């Protein structure tokens, strides 16, 4: 298992993790110096970008492939940011959260020591892909529901809606400025988690030393 200090990060998500450029008609990505995953690499993280265009929250038949991915990469941390495509395909926020809870519980069983972080995507905005006010409202409901879901599943939580992530004309995908803001916000959250783990580890070491005296 990899030590936390090595900071290997697996980023599991949809097109906003993949780095999709909505100006492209053929699924192209932003350049690497724009994508938030690459920006995190410049901050000292070893990043495995496992984003996939159009990905919804995986269901049971997809779990073995995800387990194999976790065990092959052996990350210290895993970010999970999904749910937008579920809503775009007609799912309710409650349905998305139910599927997310199943996914997180399975990942917690198979994570091979990785620290899981559930990220609520920034709420959608009116745009070419988002022409229903109800869809905007539904996307805004994911964050509080995901926060509760993370607590139930014993994983960490981050709310990208608090990071001022700018979206493009379609109302869904990050702009280049949005990628930069997302990377900055996630870097702070990751630092908080790493520091908390180091403090917990130090406290455990002291406690064990005291018990041995």
Task: Write up what this structure looks like.
The structure is a single chain. With 213 residues, the chain is an alpha/beta fold. The protein has one domain (4-212): Rossmann fold, CATH 3.40.50. It has 7 helices and 5 strands. It has helices at residues 15-18, 36-41, 63-73, 84-88, 93-110, 133-153, 176-212, and strands at residues 8-13, 46-51, 77-81, 115-120, 156-159. A 5-stranded parallel beta sheet has the order 2-1-3-4-5, with helices on both faces. It is globular. The two termini are 30 Å apart.
Strand content: 5-15%
The largest beta-sheet arranges its strands as 2-1-3-4-5
Mean pLDDT: 91
Order of helices and strands: EHHEHEHHEHEH
Provide the number of structural domains: 1
Short description:
By secondary structure, this protein is an alpha/beta fold. 48% of the residues lie in helices and 13% in strands.
Supply database-style keywords:
Rossmann fold; 48% helix; alpha/beta; globular; 5 strands; 213 residues; disordered N terminus; five-stranded parallel sheet
Which SSEs are present, and which pair or pack?
Layout: E1 8-13, H1 15-18, H2 36-41, E2 46-51, H3 63-73, E3 77-81, H4 84-88, H5 93-110, E4 115-120, H6 133-153, E5 156-159, H7 176-212
Parallel strand pairs: 1-2, 1-3, 3-4, 4-5
Helix pairs in contact: 3-5, 5-6
